[in-house]
Specification:
Blueprint lengths: L23 H31 L4 H6 L11 H9 L2 H32 L5 H13 L6 H10 L6 H25 L3 H9 L4 H12 L1 H16 L3 H6 L8 H10 L7 H21 L1 H13 L1
Helix pairs in contact: 3-13, 4-7, 4-10, 4-12, 5-7, 7-10, 8-9, 10-14, 12-13
Amino acid sequence: MSTQMMTEPLRADEVETHHVQATKGDRAVSTVSHILLIIWAAIVVLPLLWTLLTSFKTTSEIFSSPFGLPKTPQWVNFKNAWITAGIGDYFLNTILVVFSALILVMVFGAMSAYVLARFKFHGNRLIYVLFLAGNTFPIFLAVVPLFFTLKNMHLLNTMQGLIITYVAFALPFTVFFLYAFFKTLPYEIYEAAQIDGAGEWTTFFRVMLPMAKPGLASVAIFNFLGLWNQYLIPVALNTNTDNYVLSQGLAAFAARTNYEVDYGALFASVVVTILPVLIVYIIFQRQLQGSVSQGTMK
């Protein structure tokens, strides 16, 4: 005859809790870490706040009181930057080039990383090593070959040529980043999809790609930041003022009238350039942190 042991759940006040006492060394490390983080945050945030504050001043106020509050917020600076300085056109050009390149590089990069990570074929490792080598190749060494290549393709000084170059610039990093995510996906899920009758394309787009969503979010953010702030490539390959991107437009605006620059509108232009980057990071901050933590756990 068997007996059953009936146990009642313990109340919260009956549960023993053990608190680990922090040592002096732990407290010292924590204090120093917080101090360093506060200093680093000040280094990053204060220039951004000063730039935002200065964008509401007149040029005379900027030079007479660079760290003071504006007497009257000059919203006209943003109007002058958007219309008079042409920042609106440069902004639209940048949106078109960056998002077109981002979509292409994410599609091609995900497909390349998936094939290299999940399929074994002759030359697989060599192709992956070549992608890794692309991450170590300095972009300024490729400017001259890219210039003549686009010239021979009749794509020099065009948005299409700039988009293709951006894709080639971001593709090695995208493949390198997503390779590890696809490598760790369970093979049993792939086999289950094949048994259910899914083809390779269906398996990739409807099964494997959604499972790699954290990695896709992270690499998309990194690529967006890198392409949005790109300066050397458009300066070398895009000299048509109608196709200028924001980085070129800001430099041209600053040098347009030598010492007669409207500095209020110039700082407003900088704010317009920075704002999309901040918005994208704030929106996708949780996805970025989650994907990085998952990548470290893998």
